[in-house]
Each structure stands twice: as structure tokens, then as C-alpha cells.
Specification:
Blueprint: H1 3-41, E1 65-74, E2 80-84, E3 88-92, E4 97-105, E5 111-120, E6 128-132, E7 138-141, E8 146-155, E9 170-179, E10 187-188, H2 191-194, H3 199-208, H4 243-248, H5 254-262, H6 264-267, H7 280-290, H8 299-306
Parallel strand pairs: 1-9, 7-10
Antiparallel strand pairs: 1-3, 2-4, 4-8, 5-7, 5-9, 6-8
Helix pairs in contact: 3-7, 5-7
The protein binds heme C (HEC).
Residues 209-210, 212-214, 221-223, 225, 228, 233-234, 236, 241-242, 244-245, 252, 257, 260-261, 271-275, 277, 286 line the site of heme C (HEC).
């Protein structure tokens, strides 16, 4: 009788250990499976469809540059306009790049669509990594609703070592939207409007657009932007501001930066920044990034800007 409970306890321990091992096995399988799927299809998660991420290894960013072209299609009968915001981008292998597509429902009824994509030449598919995207998930657009959808990607530097692809400099990413026959459980594309500001996305925008004229820690064509949030306009020593900006007295914060980036001359007449960012979501993200550039200038910030020479 006294041996009995002890034996039962032992059995229970074996059962628990066995269960744990099984769970670990299942999880390992799922993880390796999802990595494979990920390579092929980007984010397969229904939940959010947006947040499963690959990560770019900036350390392996390579000198090789490829042109990535964007191509969009809408299946017959789907009254959506769907276009890439940019025709193409030049990217270094390993460089994170943020691009946008616009979708608009031209009809008077809500419609659910889903997108498929492919990469050409197909051998590149293995190396084309999306970090955030819209794809196979069902997406709903209200009547005449228009949204901008981000795709954050990089091309794996290992592509440079693939003998089949030594001469490949042009890559095309094509998306096709189809009308969904089975719209239950569709996500609302408007979620892209509700995402919180994303400083990482803002950093990409900074690297691909602002850095043509601005650096974080030194004056270029435009003034340095480190510590810009909280700073009075026109006050970086040694930068030849327009008289308008010097006189403005504006303090840069999220609201004033938003107006400035939307239309500098409308916000401060006579200002001389020859650039604006019409998309409010991108303004929000880039402002979130600027807010991370705190003075005094920390070593990691200097390193960050050094990796985006511009
Ligand atoms: C084509 C060049 C160019 C691009 C691209 C550009 N800027 Fe500027 N920026 C300028 C110039 C020139 C000024 C100074 C304007 C003046 O003196 O009136 C300026 C001024 C500014 C200021 C005011 C800084 C201060 O010290 O008062 C901010 C903030 C700013 N830019 C942010 C940005 C951001 C963010 C981006 C990218 C989304 C960007 N700029 C893209 C040229 C550019």
C-alpha cells in the first residue's frame, strides 16, 4: 500500500517529462516548418498578418546592388485600383527597404480581397525576405476607401554566393489582388492606418529619403537632425538657414514637424526645404524616429548614421 502512491507519482513524473518532450518536438517542427513557409510566402499568420518578421542582419549588408521593380495586378472583376507608390528601388543586398503600395476600392460596396505575390526570376524567391507585408490574408476595403500598405523587405546577402544568380541585377516583385469568395473573418485593411507610429519604419524612410540632404550628427545640404524634437527651428550652429527659418521661432514637436514635413513653405513662408512627405503615416513614422535621436549624441546613434552614408 505505501509503495503504491510513490509508484503513481513516478508514473506521473514520466508522463509529464514525456509530455514536455513531445511538446518540444512539436514546437521544433513547427518552427522549422514556419521558417520554410516564411521563405516562400512571407507572413502566413492570420493573426495580424503583419507582425511576423524576418530580421535583416545589417552586419552582412553587401556592396552588391540590385534593382527591385514593383508590378501590381488586379484580377478581372475586382473594382480596385492597386498601384506601387514607387516603380523601383536600388538596394544593397542585406539593406532593409520600406516600400508602399496603394489600394483603393473604386466601388460603392465593401469588398474583401486577397493578394498573392511572386518574385522573378524565381530563383531569387529564396533570398527575398519580407519583414512586414500584406499578402495572403483576406483584406477588406470599404466603399471608396483608399489605404497605403507597407512592405518592408531585404534581399538576403547570400544571394551573392549563388552561382545561378551572378548576373542577376533586376528583380521584380509582383502582387495580384483577387476578390475573396469567402470573406468571413477578413481583416480590415484600415488596420494599416491604426498601427502605432513605428520608429523602425521611420528610420528606413529617413535612410531612403531624408538622408539625401540630412545626417543625424552633422550638417549637410540640410541641418543635422539629432535632438531636433524639442529644439527651436533654425538654431543649429554653423548651418546657413534661410531667413524665414531663423526668424520662425517654432519649437519642433510632433505637431509642428508634421505640418513642416507635409508642406514646409505653407507652414513657414520662405523656408527652403525642397521636399515634402505627403503621406501622413510616413510622416508619423519618421517623426517617431526623429524623437529617438536624443542629444547629446550617443555613440550608437553615430554608428547608426554611419551605416547609412548618404
Ligand atoms: C532635398 C533636400 C532635403 C530633403 C530630402 C529633406 N530636407 Fe529637411 N531641410 C532641407 C533644408 C535645405 C533645410 C533648411 C531649410 C531652411 O533653411 O529654410 C531643411 C530643414 C529641415 C528641418 C528644420 C531643422 C531645424 O534645425 O530647424 C527639419 C526638421 C527637416 N528638414 C526634416 C526633414 C526630414 C524629416 C526629411 C525627410 C522626411 C527631410 N527634412 C528631407 C533639405 C532637405
Amino acid at each position: 500500500m505505501p509503495a503504491d502512491p510513490a509508484r503513481r507519482r513516478r508514473v506521473r513524473v514520466y508522463a509529464t517529462v514525456g509530455g514536455l518532450l513531445l511538446a518540444v518536438g512539436v514546437m521544433t517542427t513547427l518552427v522549422s516548418y514556419s521558417v520554410t513557409l516564411y521563405r516562400l510566402f512571407c507572413s502566413v499568420t492570420g493573426a495580424g498578418g503583419y507582425t511576423q518578421r524576418a530580421t535583416a542582419d545589417h552586419a552582412t549588408k553587401s556592396a552588391r546592388v540590385v534593382n527591385v521593380f514593383f508590378n501590381t495586378n488586379v484580377a478581372p472583376g475586382l473594382p480596385w485600383r492597386f498601384v506601387p507608390v514607387q516603380r523601383s528601388v536600388n538596394v544593397h543586398l542585406g539593406q532593409n527597404t520600406l516600400v508602399f503600395f496603394t489600394a483603393e476600392n473604386a466601388s460603392d460596396r465593401p469588398i474583401v480581397g486577397h493578394a498573392t505575390f511572386n518574385v522573378a526570376p524565381s530563383e531569387v524567391g529564396l533570398y527575398f525576405k519580407k519583414i512586414q507585408c500584406f499578402c495572403f490574408t483576406e483584406e477588406r476595403l470599404g466603399p471608396h476607401q483608399k489605404v497605403e500598405m507597407p512592405v518592408d523587405f531585404f534581399v538576403d546577402p547570400r544571394m551573392a554566393k549563388d552561382p545561378v544568380l551572378t548576373d542577376t541585377n533586376n528583380i521584380t516583385l509582383s502582387y495580384t489582388f483577387f476578390e475573396s469568395k469567402n470573406p468571413e473573418g477578413a481583416q480590415n485593411l484600415a488596420r494599416f492606418d491604426k498601427e502605432p507610429p513605428n520608429p523602425a519604419a521611420g528610420r528606413e524612410i529617413f535612410a531612403t529619403t531624408c538622408s539625401a540632404c540630412h545626417a543625424v550628427d552633422r550638417n549637410k545640404v540640410g541641418p543635422m537632425l539629432e535632438g531636433v524634437v524639442g529644439r527651436t527651428a533654425g538654431t543649429v550652429p554653423g548651418y546657413p538657414y534661410s531667413a524665414a527659418l531663423t526668424r520662425a521661432g517654432t519649437v519642433w514637436n510632433a505637431a509642428t514637424l508634421d505640418k513642416w514635413l507635409a508642406d514646409p513653405q505653407a507652414f513657414i513662408a520662405g523656408a527652403q526645404m525642397p521636399f515634402h512627405l505627403p503621406d501622413p503615416l510616413r510622416r508619423r513614422d519618421v517623426i517617431a524616429y526623429l524623437a529617438t535621436l536624443k542629444p547629446p549624441h550617443a555613440a550608437h546613434v553615430a554608428k547608426q548614421s554611419a551605416s547609412h552614408p548618404g
